[in-house]
């Protein structure tokens, strides 16, 4: 074969190869769109575009007017280590991808105020951080001056203040009821706002076996316009002869403690119960000591008296053992709890007799956020949960959501929980069969 006849064949083969090279990318491009075609597989791990890897959108707003905060530094941090940092855009937004499931602490600082919350990208994809001046509880007490106390739900004093000459008060915006007291008047109680002190119901009596001292009076009074009961607290002076005199709000139920001994508040002579010591031990289900366990002793009063009310708090030592004075030789309801354990209530315990032995089973916690239909946090929502299956001695655990709508309930027992969430002006919701360590995003709809 001559050299001249082979050139067209070589040239044809070369043109065919060039044509195939040009058609191959076009075939790949059209393959995903033509019938029977197959698109090219994307890489398996692309956290920047994969929602399954955990994506979180954070919006930073000013609390007072809900305007976006641009240029806010947002820090996201895991308990197990590792962190991410970003800056909010003109709409106050940050979008962080590839976080994966599990709790993440989200924090920002604007004008010197730090705000933080927790989120789980595997459960919720959006978080709102509302920054601004600290919210306060303010109002006016009439007549003035007076003492104002913010009482937590367990009866402890969360904050206190004296009013000015015009009766104005200013307290942190914490969960609980506001109680105002003044000599010669019954305590006045409200959730917030103005309070008016009135004379109320006069109670006079004598403590038999008492002597001079302070009678700490605690009780419940109906909340105006609702079915709830608000907690109040005041102090009455007791003379050397045991005589006391004080006033209660209308419709109030009350009891007192004098030198640690429970006293049923009523007119006439009241014999103080005999003093006694409370002692015993708290153990975990595996037999080990429940070190630093906390016990709350609430005296069992008349059957018609509403509880719970504040009791005597006792802390066990490093061996789970406790011994304390200031008790009456009477019967108490005892609530015990320790880290990692389910709370337990013993409804009828005799103090002053045999040592008390309490065994705590393993516990779990659930937490999350309460938001409205627009996704904005709902502070001061009331959250309650009970461990299931229900058993005797398994209490209802309660909490109140914070300014970011965040809540956490610890000390639940059983295998799962039932949760109920309520907030003023919104429909209540109940969630059932929640597994341990759940992180929730509870959305409440507005009434109407």
Structure description:
The strands form ten sheets. The protein has a four-stranded antiparallel sheet with strand order 3-2-5-6, with no helix packed on it. Strands 10-9-12-13 form a four-stranded antiparallel sheet, with no helix packed on it. It folds into four domains: 81 residues, Carboxypeptidase-like, regulatory domain (Immunoglobulin-like); 136 residues, no CATH class; 86 residues, Immunoglobulins (Immunoglobulin-like, Sandwich); 81 residues, Aromatic compound dioxygenase (Protocatechuate 3,4-Dioxygenase, subunit A), CATH 2.60.130. With 448 residues, the protein is mostly beta strands. The protein is globular. The protein is built from one helix and 35 strands. Strand 19 and strand 20 form a beta hairpin. The N terminus is likely disordered.
Highlighted features:
mainly beta; Immunoglobulin-like; 4 domains; 4-stranded antiparallel β-sheet; 35 strands; globular; disordered N terminus
